[in-house]
Each structure stands twice: as structure tokens, then as C-alpha cells.
Amino acid sequence: MDNITEGVVIDYRTLTDDALQGLIESVVYQEGTDYGDVEFSLADKVAQVKEQLVAKEAVVVFDPQSNSANIIPCNSDLSNQPLYIHHK
Fold first, then answer.
1. What is 8-73's CATH topology?
2. Is 83 helix (H, G, I), strand (E, B) or coil?
3. Phi, psi at 68, each rounded to 5°
4. Which of 5, 7, 38, 77 gets the highest tally of CB atoms within 10 A of its CB?
5. Would the pTM of this model clear 0.70, i.e. be above it?
């Protein structure tokens, strides 16, 4: 049997503002710092992720096995797939 668990999708609106902010910042920091020629501020990156949540392009997923959460694209089949910041 695989050691892969399915995550539980959590409505981002049920998180406190501080919890959501912390989760988004954590995801953004995991993205790394190489964004090509254009640099985005932390605030810009956080805003992009929030826009994706509001537009239902991304979801918050809680993994009960690791007791951790992540934000993944809605079209992702992998629970460990990171959210990629879209460069506009």
C-alpha cells in the first residue's frame, strides 16, 4: 500500500486572517526566490495567491498525516504540488 494520503480541502474563508496570511506566506517562501527578470514583493505574491483562492483557481489542503496545510492549484492531482506564482 502506498504511503500517500489524501488531503482534506479546507475553505480558506474558515481560516482566521492571521492563519491564512501565515499559510500563504509559507507557501510563497517555499516557492524560492528566482522569479526571472521581474521581482515581486512579498505583498504582491501574497495578493496573487489570495486572488487565486478567491477565483477558485487554488485551494487550501490539509494533510492529517503530517498535520500540515498547503495551497495547491485546483487542476493539480498531486497533494504535494506547490502553488506557482503567476507572473503577469
1. Arc Repressor Mutant, subunit A (1.10.10)
2. coil
3. -135, 165
4. 7
5. yes
pLDDT above 90 coverage of the chain, percent: 48
In 3-state terms the chain splits into helix, strand, coil percentages (rounded to 5) of 35, 15, 50
Domain ranges of the chain: 8-73
DSSP letters, 17-38, are HHHHHHHHHHHHHHT-S--TT-
| pLDDT digit string, tens, across residues 48-71 | 999 999 999 999 999 888 889 999
Residues 6+ apart with CB under 8 A from 74: 56, 57, 58, 59
